[in-house]
Amino acid sequence: MVNAHILSVDVERWSDATLLAGQVQRDVGQPLVRAQTERVLRILAQASVRATFFVLGEVARDNPGLVQEIADHGHEIGCHGWTHDLLADLGRERLEHDLSRARRLLQELSGQPVAAFRAPTWSLDRQAPWAAAVIRQTGFTVDMSIFDGRHGPYGEPISIGRPFRLATSGGDLWEFPTSVRSWSGLRVGGGFYWRVLPRRWVAASYAAKAHPAVGYLHPWEVGRVDWQFPEAVPAGVRFTMTAGVDAFEEKLGWLLSVIPWQRSCDVVESEVVEQWPRLSLSASGLKVVEEGE
Ligand SMILES: [Zn+2]
Q1: For residue 290, how far is its CA from the centre of ligand 1 (angstroms)?
Q2: Closest among 293, 266, 292, 280 to 171, alpha carbons compared
Q3: Which of 46, 63, 110, 131 could form a disulfide with 71 if both were Cys (CB 3.0 to 4.6 A apart)?
Q4: What is the dihedral of CA 278, 135, 268, 71, to 10 degrees?
Q5: Each residue of 26-82: pLDDT tens digit?
Q6: Residue 22, CB half-sphere, CA atoms under 13 Å: how many?
Q7: What is the architecture, at CATH level 2, of domain 5-285?
Q8: What is the model's pTM?
Q9: How far apart are the CA of 10 and the centre of ligand 1, in A?
């Protein structure tokens, strides 16, 4: 029986979405990110829910008071990288530099240890298996960077469908797959799926889980569409980013009230992680190297 699932918020600008790469300047959404994040803080406070906030280094640098504000609400501060680039595109040296720099800044601004990491666009996969060791070596112990299943350019199928230890040359990471398989096999981890799928269907998918699962959202997804796309952005991308946004505040409030949520640090404290199955990641995917209990 699960006490609660992990709620996570990726604090980034709307213009950081990988779907928009090459079509808008990354920092166009900068003036909106603080108000959008404060909207999420208000909704979580109303529901008395604490979450893990993965903050992008560039957003922390440009909104220094924001990180403290999130921490003051009782949320856990996690790291979403320095820029919103895929791990494979950064390469080992740049990733090491970026993660050290981002973790240091987030710890300074929040006054709390930063243990959890989420890669932009779930890009910890077979295209960047070396990145797991870099994440561990730069001080992170919890990772939520793997999307269970293939989804366009990202994702890595996880046969065991539950949290596990990810073996790296620098030690193990506690890995929480960021997606939830529903009865139909569809992944309903958060964001777009939460905005468009029937709410009871989403809630039932979480209720059926035997282990802590993860939900995610972005500050730009909640409340209203308060930005404008350049004309060249295709209709499909516009739909994916805006469908259900205007009605999501109320729906999110409901999901927060019927599904129990907690921060990743709460789960790590309450679980006997040493007994989790242990997997390794290589260019051919994830493989079980040790069965759990
Ligand atoms: Zn992101």
Answers
A1: 31
A2: 280
A3: 110
A4: -160
A5: 999 999 999 999 999 999 999 999 999 999 999 999 998 999 999 999 999 999 999
A6: 3
A7: Alpha-Beta Barrel (3.20)
A8: 0.96
A9: 6
Cβ atoms 260, 51 nearer than 8 A: no
pLDDT digits (tens, 9 = 90+) for 121-134: 999 999 999 999 99
Q: Give the three-state DSSP class for 174.
A: strand
CA–centroid distance for 208 within its chain: 21
**HEC readout, 103-132:** HHHHHHHHCCCCCEECCHHHCCCCCCCCHH
- pLDDT, one tens digit per residue, over 193-249 is 999 999 999 999 999 888 899 999 999 999 889 999 999 999 999 999 999 999 999
Q: Which helix (H) or strand (E) holds 7?
A: strand 5-11
What are the boundaries of each domain within the chain? 5-285
293 Cα to the center of ligand 1, angstroms: 33
Give the Cα-Cα-Cα angle 7, 271, 9 (nearest 5 degrees). Answer: 15
Q: How far is the CA of 291 from the centre of ligand 1 (A)?
A: 31
Helix and strand counts by DSSP (H, E) for the chain: 11, 11
What are the backbone dihedrals phi and psi of residue 169, each rounded to the nearest 5 degrees, phi first? -70, -15
End-to-end alpha carbon distance in the chain: 15
1 Cα–ligand 1 center, Å: 30
Ligand 1 geometric centre to CA of 232 (Å) = 22
